Amino acid sequence: MQKAITCLYKRPNASTRLIFFPWAGGGSIFFANWGRWFDESIEVYSVMLAGRESRSRESFAQNIDQIVDEVCEFLLPLLHEKSLAFFGHSFGSLTSFATAVRLKEKYGVEPIHLFVSGISAPHSELRLHTDKKSEKTDEDLLCWLSTAGGTPTAILQNKEALKMFIPAMKADLRIVESFMYEKPDGQVLSCGLTCFDGNEDTPHDLEGLKNKRASKAKRILRAWQQRTQKGP
To answer: Catalytic: which of 90, 93, 96, 120?
Structure first.
């Protein structure tokens, strides 16, 4: 498990394990450190993808199925010990959703709750009309990151850190851009769902910036709810 999952704060008596899925280019340490903020009932694990941190010598995943297959392999033994909940941010929202669907369809198990943040629903047409950021030059990508916000200034100004961060981010963005999910007839998951969309984040629907923040948030939530049986 240590190869693909990081846990910095062991809580053997916890009743639930909360599994975090990182954003594009992200590692596992940021979310793994969140373990300090939870009480003894929650044990935090963070997914470590190939090509970063202690796995820096490994090749990046080429598609979302490679990520899902690997994460499922490590999560399956845990599912029979304690309940699991998933939290994914941006790119991590897609990988956490895809992992939950695979566990449900192939193994008949799923997390007790899915938390998603900072991205439109998997089947949203908005995702089909965004420019391919993975094809930007490093300079243009950095310019976009600096205006979009969310990336620490220390990383953007650290040339050595960027040498590791940019290739990982582009690899993850290619997966996001190639991920296609057709809207099914019914719900694919029965677990609870909570969606987060920051008021000060760069919105996915730019037309909703000025006067449609509330309606935009409802559209995003409603779209995600179509993938699950329960609301937030």
So the answer is: 90
Query: How confident is the model at residue 202, as a pLDDT?
Result: 53
pLDDT at 60: 96
The Cβ-side half-sphere exposure at 28, using a 13 Å CA radius, reads 21
Burial class of residue 116, CB neighbours in 10 A (0-12, 13-18, 19+): buried
Q: Return the pLDDT at 218.
A: 44
Any domain includes 162:
no
For residue 194, the enclosing domain spans 5-127+180-225
168, 127, 163, 162: which is closest to 146 by C-alpha?
162
- Structurally, the chain folds into a number of domains equal to 1
Average pLDDT by stretches of 10, the chain with 232 residues: 82 95 93 95 96 93 95 87 92 94 92 89 74 86 75 75 88 91 77 80 38 39 50 42
- What is residue 219's predicted lDDT score, i.e. its pLDDT? 43
List beta partners, residue 92. none
Q: How many residues does the structure list for the chain? A: 232
Q: How far apart are CA 19 and CA 132, in angstroms?
A: 28
Question: How many CA within 13 A on the CB side of residue 22?
Answer: 29
Residue 61 lies in a domain: yes
For residue 196, give the CATH number of its domain: 3.40.50.1820
Q: Is residue 215 flagged as an active site residue?
A: no
Within a domain: 51? yes
Q: What does the pLDDT read at residue 13?
A: 94
Alpha-carbon 202 to chain mean position: 17
Q: Is residue 81 part of a domain?
A: yes
